[in-house]
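Annex B. Sample input.
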Amino acid sequence: MNKTNVDEMLLQMIEPKLREIQERFSRGEGLGSDDINTLLLKSQFNHINHLDEKLNEVTADVSSLKTDFKLLETKVDARLSTFEANIEFKIQKAINSNMRWSIGLIALLVTILKLIDVLADKLPNLF
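Annex B, continued. Sample output.
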């Protein structure tokens, strides 16, 4: 708990009154409205300090989450880059394979057409 000087001063100011209230209450004496207000002040002070502690915990958790998300982002980016490189490699490999088949089929078609052309030129001479 991080108390400021003002927090300490407030506690010191009401501490004697709180002891007095405790003594009177333990003797069975009634409490006045000033006594109740002092007890409420102390209760609110404790409540605010408790909320400050929880806020500090939440702040630390959020900071930790930011670090965790940065680490996760780095890992995801690395895997995504690997995945993209792998996909690019597979696409390039598929394109190369298709190009080889296309060039091979074109060469075969040109050869067959040339063969037909040569045979067509010689075929009338045979009869």
